[in-house]
Amino acid sequence: MADPGLRERKKQATRLLISNVATGLFIQRGFEEVTVAEIAEAAGVSKMTVFNYFPRKEDLFLDRHADRLAELTSVVRDRPAGVSPCEALRRHQHALLSSGHPLSGAIAGGPGFWWVLTSSPALMARWYEQEREIAEAFTSVLAEETGDAFRSRMVAGLLTTAITTVFAHAMGRIVAGDDAEVVRQEQVAVIDQAFDLVEHGVGEFPQGRYGR
Amino acid sequence: MADPGLRERKKQATRLLISNVATGLFIQRGFEEVTVAEIAEAAGVSKMTVFNYFPRKEDLFLDRHADRLAELTSVVRDRPAGVSPCEALRRHQHALLSSGHPLSGAIAGGPGFWWVLTSSPALMARWYEQEREIAEAFTSVLAEETGDAFRSRMVAGLLTTAITTVFAHAMGRIVAGDDAEVVRQEQVAVIDQAFDLVEHGVGEFPQGRYGR
DNA sequence: GCGAAACTTTTACCGAGTCAAACTTTGAGC
DNA sequence: GCTCAAAGTTTGACTCGGTAAAAGTTTCGC
After folding, report:
1. Residue A107: which pLDDT band, with cuts at 50, 70 and 90?
2. CA distance linking residue B86 with residue A13, whole number of Å
3. Straight-line distance from CA B124 to C1' C23, in Å?
4. A10 CB inside 7 Å of strand C
5. Considering only CA atoms, which of A124, A12, A14 is closest in space to residue A61?
6. Contacts of residue B157 in chain A, CB cutoff 8 Å?
7. Which of A22, A41, A44, A43 shows the shortest CA–CA distance to A33?
8. Do the beta carbons of residue B137 and residue B67 sit within 8 Å?
9. Distance of CA A13 to CAs A10, A20, A21, A43, Å?
């Protein structure tokens, strides 16, 4: 880290170059319409090299996953004393939103990012796989803390559902063309509603069925 | 339906033949180790025909999804008056378990079924995609009933999490070699714990951190 | 039985991803 | 500095999932 060395620097530069070239092409023309060979050529590199850095084509686009995973894991593991995981994540989501972070879902991560993502089944599949990895990470943290494997898994799943649903809701509206600023303002209540449901349960929802 | 006709009967027979041949090969040797061409040959049919009936290779193995989806959707949509979706699904899971249904997770769906599933990333990915379809189906039903899009999506997600987590828990134990009968007995409490969490919330879980 | 519609096969093809061997670049030690 | 080994890249050939189009075959309605 102190002295990266020429070798290491070149590697990072190449990786970044490939990623940038790929992302650019995807946003211009869509994920499925760009081949890996094409990306390699545009980046002045061989196809094999692309796969050296990014094992799957989808990883070329979804290359921020490791960061997101680490961040969310840390939010739960390193939460302040006396704060539940649910509460810690709720605050984190609010913080992401008010800081305008792309992963709040309410801000476009570059124009067309959500469009590229949602219009490719392969990308969406990988996206959901990453969400599952988040749930697994939560499970590990909670299980280590409590020793209760199943309960940890359930709570991790519920928390992850809150995060991903909040996110998907915002993304859906953005893709549908809703004004980003409006979506963003309304997301505050959405986040609270989601975490309230996880924290206090769905109860008898929906009330009022058949005239109750 | 009344008169299937020769054509239709042949189609169903071919479909079943392909599915059976494929499943057999998968269980013998694993999903990734069997090619579609091989399945076609073993079934005495062309590769194209295989893809005619099963658009994706994964569908050859996970061909009960449509039934499962319809059943779960019906459980929520057609639940008795005065019963919440959460309660309806809880009862349904108990019923599946006590009837020894494979989808309770506690029973092996044929020897090696879970092994085939868990040892193939591609299959697992498709499996999780199917779980998402379940969540979407729940969302539709609840949204139609209540008109509250986001809340419906959240509740649908939480309910689906309960189902899939209960299932994954049992499957994990079976794959790990736990005795099926023991797993089955303990699943009763697991189901209730899962649905209790969804119904009443995770609260401040985990309690007791840092001496609270 | 005849013709159209439905189903299957053939053939050719594309793109993701793997493998192994040759080649180039970097870095470490003398 | 020079050399050699290791790391990284390229090449080319290959496998497999999946698609497309056109040419058979089989079934069904009349």
Report:
1. low
2. 51
3. 40
4. yes
5. A124
6. 161, 164-165
7. A22
8. no
9. 5, 10, 12, 11
In the chain, the amino acid numbered B127 is W
d(CA A56, CA A59): 5
Question: What is the maximum alpha-carbon separation in chain B?
Answer: 72
pLDDT at B74: 98
For A177, the token pair is 């063309």
Minimum mean pLDDT range among A44-48, A71-75, A202-206, B184-188: A202-206
Estimate in Å the CA B48 to C1' D20 gap, whole number: 11
Split at pLDDT 50, 70, 90, the class of B104 is: confident
Euclidean distance between CA atoms B168 and B166, whole angstroms? 6
Tokens 């969400």: give the residue: A131
Which nucleotide, over all strands, has the C1' atom closest to the CA of B34? Answer: D16
Range with the poorest average pLDDT among A41-45, A59-63, B5-9: B5-9
Residue A200: what residue type?
Answer: H
Q: Token pair of B186, please? A: 């303990």
If pLDDT is split at 50, 70 and 90, which confidence band does B111 have?
Answer: low
How much is the pLDDT for A109? 59
The three-state (H, E, C) secondary structure of A139-171, written as one string = HHHHHHHHCCHHHHHHHHHHHHHHHHHHHHHHH
Alpha helices, H only, B78-179: 85-98, 113-118, 121-146, 149-175
Helix, strand, coil share (%) of chain B residues, nearest 5: 75, 0, 25
- Give per-residue pLDDT as tens, B72-103: 999 999 999 999 999 999 999 999 999 988 77
